[in-house]
Amino acid sequence: MRIYTRGGDSGETGLFGGKRVPKHDARVRAYGDVDELSAVLGWCAVAADGVQSAGECIGETAPTLREQLQREQQHLMTLGAYLSTPADAKESILAHLPNWPTQVVETLEAEIDAMDAQLEPLTDFILPGGNELSARLHIARTVCRRAEREVCALGATAAGDAQLKYLNRLSDWLFTAARATTPAA
Hints:
By secondary structure, the protein is mainly α. It has one domain (18-180): Up-down Bundle (Hypothetical Protein Ta1238, Chain: A). It is built from six helices and two strands. The protein has a two-stranded antiparallel ribbon with strand order 1-2. A hairpin with a 5-residue loop joins strand 1 and strand 2. Helix 1 runs antiparallel to helix 2. The longest helix is centred in the C-terminal third of the chain and has 23 residues, at 132-154. The protein is elongated, with a radius of gyration of 18 Å.
């Protein structure tokens, strides 16, 4: 299988199931932003080598921050599959979509609560930065918010309520993780 197909040379791309749409289509922008977010999470994961999860009080076997970021990359790949499938796709196409994980939002909320319990309460707006990893996590948060806006613009036909809620909670998780990886002043 070749990397290039030449199918997009005219400014169109194929959705899952074969339908062709312009590359500036709202659906393509949405899954493109989700793909970009996954890439940024990978960039964050590289900087997170050796960093323990700030949410260790969840349990003794808490994943590392890198593992958490890679877990979210997997969720984003699943979301991208949903977004790249047209609303009018045949049942035979829809049957190939991966299942959406049911506990994903609850997991993020538990990890946010665990991280937040170890942080000083917020009293002011914070400036992104602090260290390399924290700055990367803040960039991921802003890309996540953009992806959320693009997915919302598509409406309910592209992603269900669970996936929209997921993107919203993921940006909260990224904000809290950025705070948790910033050295105390």
